[in-house]
Every structure is written in structure tokens, then in C-alpha cells.
Amino acid sequence: MSPDAPDPMLSVPPKPRFPDLRELGPAETVKARWQQLLLVWQWHHERHDVLHPGTAYPDIVSLIKAAGAEPQLQQLYPFISHFSLNFSSCTSYPWSLRAPSVDPLRDGRFRVRNPRSSVVIGYTHTAGAAVASSSTTSRQGSAQPSPTVRSAADHPFDVYGRSVSYGCAGGPSVQVD
Questions:
Q1: pLDDT value, residue 168
Q2: 120: helix, strand or coil
Q3: Is 165 helix (H, G, I), strand (E, B) or coil?
Q4: What single DSSP character describes residue 69?
């Protein structure tokens, strides 16, 4: 890079900072997580545009927006793994997936898959259609029904502060519709 060329790192937007969500109750954690996830992935997209102009970036932002507007899905804890949007009844690992996951593809389409599976339910051309497919499939029973949302605070801990539970059972919870 020549000394006269602008440094691309100077135009990269600052990474958003967020408070620790673990101190909130399960329902508030889920609500805050939807907002956090959207802001983080908007930042990733903006950063990608600055550092790699003209290259494709999966449309994860429109997917998060569409899923966050779907009443059944917005009650579940969203997380992204390998560009796949997942929906859990647990607010921490180990996840309890309750609806099909959705992957934004580089060609602009979206793939809907069974939870924790490579079995494809279908492909759509819009984020809204993918979210509707995920939500409908979940309601029809292909995925487990909407559950009680539980937080990490619900897990028992050993003397070293490590979780000794392998599920989201026990403790106070918030029933989702």
C-alpha cells in the first residue's frame, strides 16, 4: 500500500460493546440478545464492505430482522453458528434447539434445515419466506414445540463455579407461548 493511500482500517466502524446479559432474567436476556445479534451482524457486514468491497456477503442481517419480527421465534434465544441462525429455549450452552435453523447463502437464497441436522427442509429466495418456513415447521411438530426459556442462572454449579447440569432443567423460568 502506498503512503498516500487511505488506510482501510480507519474507515472500519467501531465494534459495538454490550453489557453482560447473564445478569438478566431469561425473558429479558432473549429480548436483549435479539437486539445484540442484529447490531453485531450489522457491524460485521459494514466491516466486510470496507475491507472487501464488491465481494458477496451472506444476507444474515435481513434474516435476523425477519426472524426477530416473527412472534414464535422472537421468544427463543437466537444464536449464530457457522452463519446459521439457530433458535434455543436455553440462554446458554448446551443449546436446546426448538425450530429449524436458517442459513443465508452467498447466492442470495436461504436454506432451512432441521435442527442439528444436514437434512434440508427447503430453499427460499427471501429471508421472510425462510423464517415463515422455520416457524411453520416448528408449529407443525417437525421440531419440538416452543418451550420454557431458561437461563444459565438456572444451572447448579460446583465449588469451582462450573456448571454441573447438561440441560436447561430446573430453577425459575419464563413460559413462552
A1: 55
A2: strand
A3: coil
A4: T
Contact 90, 96 (CB under 8 A): yes
Among 15-29, 44-58, 99-113, 144-158, the minimum mean pLDDT is found in 144-158
Closest CA to 136 of 66, 80, 73, 65: 73
- With b for 16 or more beta-carbon neighbours within 10 A and e for fewer, the 16-27 pattern comes to eeeeebeebebb
pLDDT tens per residue, range 33-60:
899 899 888 888 888 888 888 887 788 8
Contacts (Cβ under 8 Å, ≥6 apart) of 81: none
Q: Are 142 and 117 in contact (CB under 8 A)?
A: no
The answer to whether 86 and 78 have CB atoms below 8 angstroms apart is yes
**Least confident window among 41-55, 115-129, 140-154:** 140-154
The DSSP letter of residue 73 is H
What 3-state class would DSSP assign to 103? strand
**Which cell numbers hold the place of 28?**
429479558
What does the mean pLDDT of the chain come to? Answer: 74
